[in-house]
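USER:
I would value a second opinion on how I read folds in token form. Give me a protein, with the fold worked out from its sequence. Write it directly below this note and I will take it from there.

ASSISTANT:
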Amino acid sequence: MANPTVILAVLSLLVFVGLGLEQFFRRTGVPDVLVLLGLGIAAGATGLVDVSQIGGLAKVFTTSALVLILFEGAIQLRLADLRSAFSGTLRITLVGFLAAMVALTVVGVVFMGMRPLAGMLLGAILGGTSSAVVIPIVQAMKLERDTRTVLTLESAFTDVLCIVFALALVGALSAGEVNAGEIGTQLGLGFGGALLLGGGMGLLWACGLKAMRQRRVSFVAIGAAVFLVYALAEALGTFGAIACLAFGVVLGNAPAVAKGSSAAAGLELAPGERLFLAEVAFLLKVFFFVYLGASLQLGAWQPWIYGALVTAAIFASRPLVVRLGLPRAVTPRRDARVASVLAPRGLAAAVLASVPVQAGIAEGQAIEAAAVGAILFSITLASGLVFAIDHPFVQRLYERFFRGYPEAVEVAAEAAGGAVVAMVPAAAPQPHEMAEVAAVALPHEVATEAPSPSAGAVAALEGPAARDPLAEPDPSLPLFPDGRKEAG
């Protein structure tokens, strides 16, 4: 049995390593998830971490990490951004998933000798981007709000598509037929039910927070509510991740949702509550990627060869997906490059990779090996390209795809008596050139985006409810929901 003292020491050390890597990301642009994954791989290879000892807790931990990372990203989304990014999200989600399925089906059939249905299963398992990887990266990068919203939602929605299509294809390979009607029913009911449940719970919880704040238990209660929403959604046969996404969006925009009501002003999440959720998501992110790296089985040659093949196919098709998915008029050229390189695979692929083997499918071992290799290679490649996104070589590499995209996007907002027009440059600073936040001393800083002229115009137009949730808190307002400005 492992020594509890050693375990506590290692976990504490990982927290400090995570803090240092987050600062390193800001200064150098090297994503921290890449280093954390590498630490996990090294720990697993040397025997320092044995994931088999975790047993049944592994799924609980990974699900908790994914749900809270997704929820923390959702509370930062604004309703105005969701409305403007809806069409782009729908296009890039569907086109991206279908393009990945087609490309990986070809790889599976031609290079790995699979049957067509098995190749489609490979494509379904690896068809979506990983929200656990994408959300932390886009939050720390200088991107247009619409681009950030589209990439966040795409990573959440494609996880659901992967699960539904992969399980349907596993059933088809076992039964010998594909039931398209069942897939459509699952998607429709699952999405609709999750959105209704998550949205309704978000409104109820926003109202309930008032009473909880008087007892100073709102911080813990929000975290518990996220898991409760996930559990209810899964128990009702809908998608828990999508329910948590809707829950976060509604809870983070409760004043705007309840606009016109006398109680709207009291529904906004306090800055302290937002920072608490960011801290929890940070801790889970650190442990999640170390665990993911330690759990990858890379001892044989198949993950390396098959993983390289499918990763090459994913990244080769991604620029076309972005061209078809992101509207050219409102997407700067640099944002299009970032979207083209953000194609990592993660938790959904890791969970689904073992399903074909368990179902006794002949190509199961090859599919699992390809998925494991693709997780490693795609996260590594995406992180490396994010770091080098403004390098001349990377710019030239993607220039042919996005030559028609503007260097800057004109954003107009009407305010008190006239129109305000701002040019938002596409050649934004490096990811590490972020505004220093830390208005409050908490265990680690939360990266924020320096407001652009257009963001200020929109904030003036839409009022306090539209304020950037990660912006530096107004010193005239209390940090904590019960009116305190200091802890204690």
Observations:
- The two ends are 39 Å apart (CA to CA).
- Confidence is low (pLDDT under 50) at residues 412-422, 424-472.
- The beta strands are 408-415, 418-425.
- The longest strand covers residues 408-415.
